[in-house]
Amino acid sequence: MDNKKMRFAIIGCGRIAPKHAESIVALEEAELVAVCDIVPEKAQSFADKYGAVPYTDYLEVLKRDDIDIVTIATPSDLHAPIGIDAAKAGKHVMVEKPMAMTLKSADELIQACRDAGVKLSVIHQNRFNKSIKLVRQALEEGRFGKLTHGQATVRWNRDENYYAQAPWRGTKLQDGGVLMNQSIHNIDLLQWMFGPVESVYGYTRTALRKIEMEDVGVAVIKFKSGALGIIEAASTIYPKNIEETLNVFGETGSVIVGGIAVNRIETWEFPASDEEKKQIFASQESDPPTVYGFGHREIIVDMIEAVKNNRNPAIPGEEGRKALEIILAIYKCQETKEPVVFPLEAE
Ligand SMILES: NC(=O)c1ccc[n+]([C@@H]2O[C@H](COP(=O)([O-])OP(=O)(O)OC[C@H]3O[C@@H](n4cnc5c(N)ncnc54)[C@H](O)[C@@H]3O)[C@@H](O)[C@H]2O)c1
């Protein structure tokens, strides 16, 4: 592994971009060289803050041959097209969630990265939470026994002001609703724990916010293993974010991870686990300052190592696609009123 710094560009300098920029500039092995936003003032102030060169046209960024990794943090419908252009320009791609708005465009992005021989990493930073790593480890060690059921719950508040901040928010073509935007991380975790999906049924509604897509969604999943899953997602919770919670229940294990962003273990029950339980509860992290958590740094480090060691990133395109498929299946149920048996056709 050589010691060359990985050179990053960030495309889209909005709300989530500082999480990327702060992580990149703090890492010894990384450097932020270019940032891009179609709004010149945003590109300029972001560039000034993090010591990079500003651009307003991402194609100009892609022409630079000194950039290794491009991070895409634009409105969601632009992830796939910009990612495809970046791959064609030979750049490794980190893409914010959801990786695309349709399975067809997700597949095109995956294929473009494969064809170009570049890495594709989808940002599901909660997989790197200390709490979630413990659950996944317990699962890999078979400590739950036969999995029975689980639940992904997101009870957050996004008010009218949040949706009014950017015209793409809450729209069908560019964002989706609370399932696609806020809950996709937790849905990703649920499917990561419980494995391939057999079928999905769900309902969505736009209960309170003036948006095109849902502010409340509920769904049930039957996994191929026979285990069942429940999804509850709401951006309408009064008066503020309450919880993002993942429950995993099995024959010999019960775990509930809560906090505002699946950061705190609330229940940890396995046979003879008293000492371990004490240690886990004693070393808990407090709630992060925002629901974005602390995982961006680790997922960026993972990508740098994936590039340097020519291995897959922890969450490659094929992994990021799985939560997208579940959410699009719920949207399909809302239209057809029929359960969706997997795989969902890529339209
Ligand atoms: N991982 C997470 O926890 C997390 C959290 C929030 C948002 N996100 C995702 O990040 C993405 C951005 O969300 P946000 O809340 O930061 O949005 P935002 O609207 O605050 O920022 C998006 C920025 O992209 C810019 N932009 C639009 N088109 C562009 C183009 N063609 N080239 C360059 N810049 C362009 C906009 O001007 C804007 O500044 C979304 O896909 C969202 O789902 C992820």
Task: Describe the fold and architecture.
It is a single chain. With 347 residues, this protein is of the alpha/beta class. Helix content is 35%, strand content 24%. It has 11 helices and 14 strands. The protein has helices spanning 17-26, 40-50, 58-63, 79-88, 103-116, 130-140, 160-165, 184-194, 274-282, 295-308, 317-336, and strands at residues 6-11, 30-36, 53-55, 69-72, 92-95, 120-122, 147-155, 197-205, 216-223, 228-234, 243-250, 253-258, 264-269, 340-341. Helix 4 packs parallel to helix 5 (103-116) and helix 5 (103-116) runs antiparallel to helix 11. The model has no long low-confidence stretch (mean pLDDT 96). Nicotinamide-adenine-dinucleotide is lined by residues 11-17, 36-39, 42, 58, 73-76, 78, 96-97, 123, 125, 166, 181, 292.
Provide the fold topology:
Layout: E1 6-11, H1 17-26, E2 30-36, H2 40-50, E3 53-55, H3 58-63, E4 69-72, H4 79-88, E5 92-95, H5 103-116, E6 120-122, H6 130-140, E7 147-155, H7 160-165, H8 184-194, E8 197-205, E9 216-223, E10 228-234, E11 243-250, E12 253-258, E13 264-269, H9 274-282, H10 295-308, H11 317-336, E14 340-341
Parallel strand pairs: 1-2, 1-4, 2-3, 4-5, 5-6, 7-10
Antiparallel strand pairs: 7-11, 8-9, 8-14, 9-10, 11-12, 12-13
Helix pairs in contact: 4-5, 5-11, 8-11
Bound molecules: nicotinamide-adenine-dinucleotide.
Nicotinamide-adenine-dinucleotide binds at residues 11-17, 36-39, 42, 58, 73-76, 78, 96-97, 123, 125, 166, 181, 292.
Tally of individual helices:
11
At the first level of CATH, what is the class of the largest domain?
Answer: Alpha Beta
Helix proportion of residues, in percent?
Answer: 25-40%
Shape descriptor reads globular
Biggest sheet statistics:
8 strands, mixed
CATH superfamily of the largest domain: Dihydrodipicolinate Reductase, domain 2
Question: Can you tell me the residue ranges where pLDDT is under 50 for at least 5 consecutive residues?
Answer: none
Estimated structural class:
alpha/beta
Kindly estimate the percentage of residues that lie in beta strands according to DSSP. 15-25%
CATH architecture of the largest domain: 2-Layer Sandwich
Number of strands: 14
* N-to-C span: 41 Å
Radius of gyration: 20 Å
Specify the oligomeric state: single chain
Small-molecule binders here are: nicotinamide-adenine-dinucleotide
What is the averaged pLDDT score? 96
**How are the strands of the biggest sheet laid out side by side?**
13-12-11-7-10-9-8-14
Number of domains: 2
Order of helices and strands: EHEHEHEHEHEHEHHEEEEEEHHHE
